[in-house]
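In practice, a research group might receive sequence data for several interacting partners and want a quick structural hypothesis before committing to experiments. The following worked case mirrors that situation: the sequences arrive first, and a predicted assembly follows.
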Amino acid sequence: MPFFAWQDRYDVNISSLDEQHRGIAGMINNLYDSLEKGVYNDETVGSVLIPIVECLKYHFQTEEKMMMESNYEEYHYHKSMHDRFTDEVMLSVIKIKKGEQVNAREILTMIRDWLLTHIEEEDRKLTPVLSQSSQPK
Ligand SMILES: [Fe+2]
Ligand SMILES: [Fe+2]
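A structural hypothesis for the assembly, expressed as tokens:
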């Protein structure tokens, strides 16, 4: 079973967001598998972990743009959750950039668990709102 086993029920039925969610889950799985196989060490893990964080940030921007364009009433609340989580994850990125040790498995677990809860509790609320507006290019 993959580390981040995606299930259809996690889909919010907004194709661009589902693709991004699935893409991030796939990146997390690939890195986790590589860690299990010992492909990365403390020095090299950042080269894969940092792009995952960049994808996460890009995903948040996509969602925020869509919410804003749809005049979503909980935009600020939803964005504040993205911002708070980004700050938390960025602490690890800063450590990696400084050459400090991080526990990559712990970070991947944190991202996976946060994403699942966030998708179920917050992103899901976007389905009726965004499916009425046009999808981004
Ligand atoms: Fe979100
Ligand atoms: Fe999302």
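Before designing any experiment, note the following. The CA atoms of residues 113 and 137 lie 29 Å apart. Residues 17, 21, 59, 63, 119, 123 surround fe (ii) ion (ligand 2) (CB under 6 Å).
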